[in-house]
Amino acid sequence: MHTTIVRSPRALGPARKSFIRRNLPYLLIAPSVVMLLALIAYPLLFALRSSFYFWNLQIGPEPLQFVGFENYVQAFNAFDFRAALTNTLILSILGTALEFIFGLAIALILLKALPGMNVVRALLILPTTIAPIVVGFLFRYLYDPGGGLLSWVLQSLWLPVPAEGILGSPSTALAAILFVDIWQWTPFFAIVLYASLLAVPDEILEAARLDRASAWTILMRIKLPLIKRTAIIIVMLRFMQIFNTFDTVLVLTRGGPGTSTRTLGYSLYEQGLVNFNIGLVSAMTWITVLIVNVIVALYVFFAFRNEEW
Amino acid sequence: MTIDIGNMSRRDLLKSASVAALVAGAGSLAVPRRGAAQDANTVRVLSVEDPFFFSMKALVPEYEKETGIKVELESLSYDALQSRLVSAFVAKTSDADVIVVDQMWLGQYLDNGWIISLNDFIAKDNEFDLSDFIPEVLYSSNMWRGQVGTLPVAAYAQGVMYRKDVFDELGIAAPPTETSEDWTWTKYVDTLKSMEGKSFGGKPLFPTVVCGSQPSPIVHMFTQVSASHGANWFKSFPAAPWDFAPQLTSPAWIKSVEVYRQLYKLSPPEAINYVWFDAGTRFAKGDIGMFYWWTPYFYLIKNSGYMTGKKSDIMDKYATAALPKAEGVPQTVSLGGWSLGIPSSSERQEAGYAFIKWATSKATQKKMALWPDLNYQFSDFARVSLYQDEEVKAIYPYLDVQYAMMKQGNGKVTRPPVPGYTAVESVLGLTLNQLLTGTEEPKTGLERANSLFESILKGNLMIPYQKDSYADTLDGAKALMVKK
Lengths: 309, 484
Hints:
heterodimer; A: two-stranded antiparallel ribbon; B: 15 strands
């Protein structure tokens, strides 16, 4: 492309100049809006359209016929749908709640001026930087009933370990996956909450202490309310993230034993990247999107009910 | 384009430039990028990282030196390879000139026009001889609707591995190296039971080990038992006319589940979660008496761990044997493996064919077998002549057993490579996994799986089958080989 830059005394008329000045902010954000629409709306609309077609790449490279809501019916009637939805909800709700509680506890400890805290803070972020697939392999060895560290620790503490191993028993496999998620993502909560807690003004805390407020009262009445907005946002983000869990499930259990660790994310992976059933996986994607958005909408509604933004 | 900066401040100019850059960026995302121009002297090979890959990779420099062609060899895991290939096919991009194809993908790739038939290349190549290939392998892994879609670079059958020292100490007769009416699954289970509760070398001994992880690992191992018992997945396939009405409720399937359940009870309980290499590495650890698995484990178990190159404790203490059969049923052995094909999107198909010819040639396959690293890690021959090669047999003494298993192979019966296979495999894998640990009757579980099979196959327009059938027989494959 050839570009010529010229300088002229009167290039733009006053009306046009004023239009640009008036709309400059919109013009500047327009590319971002266009990109967002292209990257988010287009794939979702494409998936919506595909969900009404029979389109399986194992059968043919193009959509074969319009099937209406048949893919949605198949998704709901699939052998693993209920189990996957239940497991996903358990993982998402428990995982988010436990990671928040443990993360908050760690953040409060980090606030103490104890020796070595700088090193602890640096080390804390490490688990979140490891790829989930690698974490999966790591825990596969840790859970190994033939000498894995975690199995050994549990046995040493006289806690029952199933004969099939922690990952091999339907009664413990889901908890094992939950533990992996907590191990990896609690530091994320800890770091974010720690940063928020640092922003709580010392004067307020000092005044509370002078009024002989207990540490528990200070936490519940001052610190948590002041970091509430941050907490609400990261809880929402983590919930949505856990809802799509599939990589650790793939490495650790492949959804088994039975359907005990199957998640919606794993089912999506299987239908999309193993069975290549594009129509069905598109319908499942929309079902997942709707479920997550309903939950998040309810959460946001109740969480921000008394908030002013 | 003309930009007038007459009345613009420096700040406005910078803002405009930023917007322009953003738009340009967005534009570059919207327009599909063309791949960098391929060097005319290069052939791109996309492979799975199975055992054969490493010895093939070791020989690539030799090929480059001989031909002057640069080989860009890339390897991926099984799932990643399939995802990448299909993404490239759907996007109609040229991602490679040679790809590794699993036998289960062959029909899909050829029917969708994603890979080209090699028939024409083979027909006009006077040097190329199909007759050295084992017909059962070509039929199972490389032929679809009368076309040779790929050529085998690594062919697998299944066979038995057992501990000679354990059998000697416990006074158990060694299993036979040839298929025999006396060596049945009943006898196999009885032999395992004679090891139950025993110790060896001061450690508890498990009679056997199975794969329990769903979906593929358990299906790969179980289907050897079901194929031996004469169980068919569908009413009519590969014989024409194709009818995909599922047959999982037949007595052969029920009997096979009962046998596999017994095998699991004689395995370490954690085998419920075992994938392919877990079973092999467990045997190599030394606390398993006997198991059966894909023939690459005939050499992989020489390693402590999976492809570590570190010698296992049992390296000189095991032997191989024939698979057991079911009473009164002709033996059928599961065949699998990897083959090389040419994507239709490749612009260097001739170069691709030349590489395939080299990689699957007798000379290269022998060199791969003689490559000493990783404790000699390649004996997955699809060529008859290599099973008779004394130099190779000296390193891999079990080749007679392996060849005998190959000759009884039929991959189109054990795991039918039909479109939509993975969806029904998921259901079968899950059902088997549940049946191993639960108390449900095999018949009940199989009836449920059968019903799900039917629903999936109807959903995939396979019942009733609407496309043309093809009478896909071993004799037909042999005739094609002779025709060449």
